[in-house]
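Minimal example, chain plus pyridoxal-5'-phosphate.
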Amino acid sequence: MNVPFVDLKDQYQLIKEEVDKAISSCLENTSFVGGEIIQKFETEFATFLNVKHCVGCGNGTDAIELALQVANIGKGDEVIVPAYSWISTSEAVSTVGAKPVFVDINPQYYTIDVSKIEEKITPLTKAIIPVHFYGLPVDMDGIMQLANKHNLIVIEDCAQAHGAEYKGKKVGTFGDLACFSFYPGKNLGAYGDAGAVVTNNKDLAEKVRMVANHGQNGKHNHIVEGRNSRMDTLQAAILSVKLRYLDKWTDQRIKNANLYIEKLKDIEVITPKLPENIKHVFHLFVIQVNDRDNVMKALKEKGIGFALHYPVALPFLKPYIHLGFTANDYPVSHAFSQKLLSLPMYPELSEKQIEYVCESLKVEL
Ligand SMILES: *Cc1c(COP(=O)(O)O)cnc(C)c1O
C-alpha cells in the first residue's frame, strides 16, 4: 500500500465541478485582480472566524509583514517569536527591519512556552507573534495577559490553524491582528499562493488594504509607499468554494488524528497532547520518536510518506547562526527538531491507510 504524506488530488476530484465553474467564471469575466469575488471571500472568511475585517493578500508571509508594518513595527523594535516554527514567522520580522527574539517552546504542546516570554521582554519589545503550531492553539489567555501588562501588540500566526479554537473562540480573533496562509497544503488551501490579514480594528484593516495595494486610498491617491501584495481573484474564487467544506474537512482530520492516537497507544511513540478547552485542527500529525533515522528508513521502504517540521529550529538556521546561540539556549526546540516526525495527514486519508502506517511503525519499534 502507498500512503502519500499529503494528497490534494482526491479533494480536487470531490469538488471539481464547483471549482472548475468558479475558475471559468473568472476567465469569462476576465476578472483577475480585485473585484467582487475577492470581497465575497473576504466577507465569508471573516464570518467564518467571527472577526470584523479580512483583507486578502499575496501569501501568508506577506500577511505577517503587512500586519507588522501597519502596527508600526520596524527598525529598533524587538518582536517575540517561537524558536520553533516555519521561517516566515521570524523572516517577516527581519524584513520590516525589526529583530526577532526567539523563545523556546513548551515540551508538551510544541507551541511557544508562555512562561519563558517575560524574561525576553526588554524596553525595545513591541510585539509577540504566537504561532498556533501544527493546528494547536497557543495559550491565548497567557499571551494576552503578558501583552496587556507590557503594552505589546499581538499578531497571531494562524497559517497552520484555520478553524482551531481556544475556549470556544476561533484563533485569529484574540490578537490585534492575525495572519493566515492559503498555501495549497494548508488546511484551507488555494491552488497557488494566497494569504489574509484579519482584525477587529477598522483602522488597521484599512491600512493593510492600502499598504498591500501600493499605498493607495482609491485609484492614484497614494498616501504612502506601499507594495503589491493582492490576492488573485482566481484564488479567491477557489477559496470561496473550499471554505464551504472546511468544517467537514477539519472533522475528518480530527477523526484521523484520533484513530492514530488510538492505534499508536501501545507503542513507544508520543502522540500529540491535547490541553483542555481547545480545538486542535491537525494541520500536521506529529509524533515523537527516538530513533528517527531508522523509523524514516522503514517508512520509506513501506511506501509511507512523512516529513520533518522542522529539521532545524529557527535559531540554528544559517540566517541566524551569527547570533551565536547554542542548544543550551533553546534546549526544547533543539531536542524536538531531532525527534519529531510528521505522519501522513489529510481529510481523505482512509482508516485502512492509517492502520497500515501504525502497523508499519509497530514492526519497526
Ligand atoms: C505556511 C506558513 C506561513 C507562511 O505562509 P506562506 O503562504 O507560505 O507565505 C507562516 N507561518 C507558518 C507557521 C506557516 O506554516
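The domain at 8-102+110-243 is CATH 3.40.640.10 (Aspartate Aminotransferase; domain 2). The chain is about 35% helix and 15% strand.
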